[in-house]
Amino acid sequence: MSDADGDRATMAEIAHAAGVSLATVSKVWNGRSDVSDRTRERVEEVLRVHGYRGRRAWAAEPAGTIDVIFSEIDCAWEGEHLRGIEAAGHEAGVRIVVSSLDRGETARRQLLQRLRAGRTDGAILATLTAAGPLVTALGRLNVPVVALDPACRTAGDLLSVDAANFAGARAATAHLLGLGHRRIGLIAGLAELMCSRARLDGFLAAHDDAGLSPDPELIVRGEFDFPSGMAVGGRLLDRDAPPTAIFAMSDFMAIGVYEAARIRGVSVPDQLSVVGFDDLPGARWAAPPLTTVRQPLREMGALAVRSALGLAEGGVLATELVVRESTAPV
């Protein structure tokens, strides 16, 4: 980890060698007081031994900027994250620069060129895999990186901010079971997504808690959007023995189920109960208002900013079941 071969030790390597978190290394490097003397001395010794210099901008004058990088920005879901990010950035006195990787490889190269120039104090990877070339490049730049709602499990040395997906799905399913529903359809997300796996586990756990087994034929997959919810929900409703309730892993898919039910003359909630996940602003204005699991999207965005600035160490925020008018007894 020396500079002899031209490679600088990264913050992650310093944290590993000192046996502390990335946030603690950030606090020591920036001279913050909320670190014990013993820990500070250990981190400073590791920094000295490995000749860690960091970026000139970090050592001298902060850039006053946090970069937020999305895979794409196309719905209210990203907007809710950004509301929390902007508010936390304003409170901390830093600018927020938003980038979207769906603009192609040229945009990615321009982003890395700007970061190499030392023009950021941290990067938030929103909904990305928190792995691959971009994260590796950021690690070489000694840029603090936070994974916001990561699509896949993050590396052990990367801070992350997530929601309690398992608990939320468990609560939603228990709500439907408590209303007497036994044939509950589940529209899951893509299997490779960490949130999809956690929500599926929560769905199964709620059945196990009740001493019941779900019908595997009623567990299908969608793509977290309206067309997917309408198509897959329609296939569930067209079965010889359709479900009496459907739990969709996103509000968009749940509203798609509404449309599939409307086309078939199925009344929500009289003939079909529907539960979503996210509690996006439109959920309360749906007809009928949607019962859903609230993800604290704004709070997650704010925590990601604080973590990038070394003021927090990431974490998992609680979800909450919001019961409205789309669910009723079987």
Automatic annotation (TrEMBL):
It comes from Actinoplanes sichuanensis. It holds the Pfam family LacI. One of its GO terms (molecular function) is DNA binding. The keyword Transcription regulation applies. This is LacI family DNA-binding transcriptional regulator. The keyword DNA-binding applies. InterPro entries: HTH_LacI (IPR000843), LacI/GalR-like_sensor (IPR046335), Lambda_DNA-bd_dom_sf (IPR010982), Peripla_BP_I (IPR028082). Residues 9-53 form the HTH lacI-type domain. Transmembrane segments: none annotated. SMART domains: HTH_LACI (SM00354). Keywords: DNA-binding, Transcription, Transcription regulation. Gene3D superfamilies: 3.40.50.2300, lambda repressor-like DNA-binding domains (1.10.260.40).
